[in-house]
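Deliverable D5.2: sample structural annotation.
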Amino acid sequence: MLPTAYKTFLRHLLECVPRERVFTDPLRTLAYGTDASFYRLIPKVVVDTHTEDEVVAILKLAHRMRLPVTFRAAGTSLSGQSVTDSILVRLGDGWRKYAIFDNATKIRLQPGIIGSHANRLLAEFGKKIGPDPASIDTAKIGGIVANNASGMCCGVAENSYKTLHRMRLVLADGTVVDTGDDKSRAAFGRSHGAILEGLAALRQRVLDTPGLADRIRHKFKIKNTTGYSLNALVDFSDPFEIMQHLMVGSEGTLGFISEVTYHTVTEHPHKASALVIFPTIRDACEATTILRGEPVSAVELMDSAALCSVADKPGMPGCLIGLSGQAAALLVETRAAEKSKLEEQIARITASIDAIPKVGPVEFTDIPAEFGKLWAVRKGLFPAVGAVRKVGTTVIIEDVAFPIARLADATVELQGMFAKHGYTEAIIFGHALEGNLHFVFTQDFNSPAEIERYRAFMDDVATMVVERYDGSLKAEHGTGRNMAPFVEMEWGHDAYVLMKEIKTLFDPNGLMNPGVIINEDAEAHVKHLKPLPPAHSIIDKCIECGFCEPVCPSRNVTFTPRQRIVGWREIRRMQDGAEKSRLLRELFSGYGYLGDDTCATDGLCATRCPVGINTGSFIKELRADQTGKYATRSADWVAKHFGLVCRTVNTSLKTVDLLHGLVGTDVMEKGSSFLRVVSLKKIPLWNRAMPGGSSVPRSGGMATVPGRRVVYFPSCIARSMGPARDDNERDPLPAKTVSLLIKAGYEVLFPERLGELCCGQPFESKGFKAQADMKAKELDAALLKVSNDGEYPVLCDTSPCLMRMRETLDRRLKLYEPIEFALEHLTDKLTFTRLERKVALHATCTARKMGLEGKLLQLAQLCATETVVPEDIYCCGFAGDRGFSFPELNAGALAGLREQVETCTEGYSTSRTCEVGLSLHGRIPYRNILYLVDEATSPMR
């Protein structure tokens, strides 16, 4: 039940924001309110905004009612700066506009664009944005700017503060100001002159206070995100420049950043890296001091514990095995515009540290596959700790910075603190050039004793960093709630007073993200700690970082993997405790649709997860646990009569297609929509891309080349679903595939009892594991027999089926899906002629997991003159047959597809059901890639 003030707020809010983008139910406020930090506050209202006008309306309303507001971009921040128990405003998909101008020296970005997407936009110009946080594939521009996130290469010279050109803001009272627009500046000067005058006065006070300006300059020589960007007061005299630079790193406490323009930086095309191992951490730090004067773009420090944590992982360099407990390493990268220049730099860098003791030679590599393995060492450190933590504990990653000259002493002292407080698993790594260290450890917050241990440890760390080294308590992760109690300790009284005055100047009522940066509660960092109760073995290692979210097809529809896990954890916590309440029933009931029904179980989340969690597998386990006796009996019957079921589906599709031809698309769509409404969405929704029936050739013909044989297993989907009515291509996929194989000189063999065979994928996705395994066993026996125990290659036309076959069938079988088969077995047997056309490509989620995106493009480029791979389209969300029952999942996953493929004549993929959804939302026909291969090839002479 909402408090009265929030009920009133909600009533007025719904006048400017659609109801479907406002959430007050306990499950979604919990799930949507969770970020990557170890703090838990549950908002009373969550609202998704798409426009600046909506933000203005929300802030004016909240300002009038004196209700706090917190903004959220991607929710990857680690210090508790994007959680609230009041109003949470999230960035929806509307915040993705951009412009590149002035010869690509500048880029204007809205806050909802993911950092790596901005870099993809700039790539053709040899440019990128300056900030390069580790979360750049997930973090959005709004968060990157608001936290002044930096990263491995940008240091303090190319972060958001240093590369900012202009900014558009919405202040606490809803006022909009564009610092790059003279008209807006003039209007703001008239309406809010007091803010500009206040900033000018603060600057003058700093300059007039002996030692304060020097103190501020000194603090920002190394990375520092503790408190506000006070350097704005000494770096700029123009109040508008001061204002926009204060917003950098302000964590949503001073205003909302609705647009930012960056100066871009050069992305050099030539790179080389070396992993240099030293006998001691002191040797590594001495080398770092030297390398600051050399042409290096990144120097990453790793202590011995860090190196040991990944030494036994697959793909790691052998030099990590058997290192001493004192060893340390530097991962060094250098970049250049020309290869010759790169070689000069490598020689110079190597010579510069020649006199420092090392374990082994300095060996740079400019081969991407090789230096990729080296960077895998660095990227694997955080997951390595996360993977070994005890269930119920959290992984904490702190970041501090020290003057580079004292980095070695500080690192050794920090290692001693781990031992003192019992953090035996802790590791240290960081951006050594800037004196920036990250330390990672696991922490249990489930008992007062453990909370006290954490408090004592952080007190010791703060004392060490501030009093002994005059360093930064937060180098790049933002102050948040985590370090707010220590801001005055680091900066001193005078600077802290300045920060409080800045906060009051912009937000006199304290409504913008209260409790963050400025917080008088000395215990704030140990309050509102997030519980991580045991929930399921598949997901217990989840650290709720949110890296999975950009590739999730339901991210803009219901829940993401992180949110599914958050919701289920709370349900399990309540089930295991004493809270057998109405709230628990409400959470469980809501989870059915939000967590289960609309999960595509595609598993792409695992490809982004630092600890490899496949939330799709978890949802399949839930489905298996919740299957009842009737459903299990039905699945048994379907599995045992699979041929009959397939024939029935085929006949039904032919009948519906015939009806479609008789009454037309409009009547079919209206009729289907009516039936879906009156059935309370129980009847699947027909769509204009619905396939007709299919057929399989009775024989595969004789080989024109002696001994050239292939086993073809048409998936049950390909055997049942043929072309859609409006597709000019009328041959079903099995017929087209057989024709192509015969053209390549193959004798095509089919397994016996083909109509009864299935890989088990349809059963597994619905939680019927026993039936899935039964069908896989049948298929295994049939394929071994027809392939002569694996002598002949086996082609399956559907990537999802092929991937399950590889996971479950006999290893003797040489299993291929269309992309790999065509590249490995057809390019030397057929003549490829590129067709003059522009085609769209979609790598299915399973093709992506098998690493075939590049090969799909390679194959298509052999066949067509132009290819288009749509941006930010990952899993199509059709999820087998789920797109018929939950069409909103497919629509959400493919939002933006149509605009990207509208100039293409057709599209190609490797799954018939995916192609249904792609055709529907792309408004061009999508087919299996083998159709394109067939059209572009002729027999080799």
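Annotation notes: The mean pLDDT is 94. The CA atoms of residues 167 and 260 lie 4 Å apart.
The annotation will be released with the project's public dataset once the embargo ends.
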